[in-house]
Amino acid sequence: MADTFDDLENLIACPHCDALYHVVSPKVGERAVCHRCHAVLIAPKRRAGMSIIMLALSVIVLVFGSIWFPFLTIHTSGFSNSATLLDAAFAFTDGPLLLLSLPVLALIVVIPLARVMLLIYVLWPVVLDRKPYQKAREAFLLSEKLRPWSMAEIFALGCAVALVKVADLALIGFGPAFYMFCTLVVIIVVQDNYMCRWSIWASLDPERDV
Amino acid sequence: MSGTGQLAALTAREAGLVGCRRCTRVWPIERTECGRCGASLESRDPKSLSRVWAWWTVGVMFYFPANLYPMLSTRTLLSTSESTIVGGAIDLIHHGSIGIAVVILVASVLIPMAKFLCIAFLALSARRNTDMSAGSRQHLYELVEYVGRWSMIDVFVVAILSALVQLNVAASINPGPASLSFALSVIFTMLSAQAFDSRLIWDRIEDADKPATPSTGASSPRQEDAYS
Ligand SMILES: [Zn+2]
Ligand SMILES: [Zn+2]
């Protein structure tokens, strides 16, 4: 039966339920949805590449800002302490708990940062209408695989919970890094929802310009 | 755009093709690597379920010490106390922060338990018939994948508290051994959910109600206004 589909380039299979479709590229602002499981298959956006790059650049600046500046400060009965984002990651210092420091650092800082850097590498030539970089496909694949492991937004909610826990014990001050980190979280969420993965893969297709 | 009423959709596998789960490109079924994105291709991952169960077992194993050992130890001028996940939530209720106690209980107890049960149910129902429709099971799977990550919140709370509350003799908070086993339990359960091939959910239905006359071609996906 495969020979009835001689032009495989114009077909897509839903990654969730395997339903097969003809590609009908939707207009900008519209989206193509799987009949069966309702997954969004294609959702192109206007000037998406450039917007994603700008958002990614601001995430990089904000990540370094939120590492550098004080994150939270605490005052109570004459004692005070200030913690940076890195202090929070390296709070696990007791023996085997040390194992946890690196994963926590990766989940809240390294992976979100790596993902936006990979995206810039992937999209920069595409936006300029040049040939994609040699490793662009590997880079985008890696960025997609890292997606569930980027947990900045969960860490932000964790801050809220922690603050309520110590609120009656001490006075809490918010450092500049705290606001930078919250902005960063919002940008990452917006960016992930704005990105049409199908459009990016289509623009990286090595057969496209042959 | 047309295509409504295409209830028994033709799948890539029925058409003798294999779809890439990363970039949705379609290839002949014998192909093993996607020519567009480089991901490996598998019409149905035969080892999917055994990997799901392997990660699931490790995840459950780490969940027990996560609840038995202390998550935090709090030292003040007068006393030192250690609290487990549930113990910490009970303390919060005594202090009147019922909202936060609910967040902690939902994220650290309800979600992990529900997640273990849901993954087990999805993995079992991929092999057997169930009353739950494929659409609902697909939604359940997406919910598990989306919500599961949020269990990590308790580990982050411990990290923030331990970094912040270091006030010399007045008070200090330090992480307990449960934080490591809890984090590992969340990570392994995420790996278990990711190992599940959700296309297995839909296969049984196809086997059950195959259309009398095979479809001759693929339909088009539904077009929607993204802002509706
Ligand atoms: Zn689908
Ligand atoms: Zn692919």
Automatic annotation (TrEMBL), chain A:
Keywords of the record: Membrane, Transmembrane, Transmembrane helix
Transmembrane spans: 52-71, 104-127, 170-190
Top-level lineage group: Bacteria
One Pfam family from the record: PqiA
Keyword Cell membrane in annotation: no
Name by which UniProt lists this protein: Inner membrane protein YebS
From TrEMBL, chain B:
Principal location: membrane
Stretches that traverse the bilayer: 52-72, 92-125, 146-165, 177-196
Leader peptide range in chain numbering: none
Any Pfam family the entry gives: PqiA
Compartmental location: Cell inner membrane
Ranges in a coiled coil: none
Region called Disordered, residue ranges: 209-228
UniProt xrefs under InterPro entries: PqiA-like, PqiA-PqiB_transport
Cell inner membrane is among the record's keywords: yes
Name of the featured protein: Paraquat-inducible protein A
PANTHER family with a match to the protein in the record: INTERMEMBRANE TRANSPORT PROTEIN PQIA, INTERMEMBRANE TRANSPORT PROTEIN PQIB-RELATED
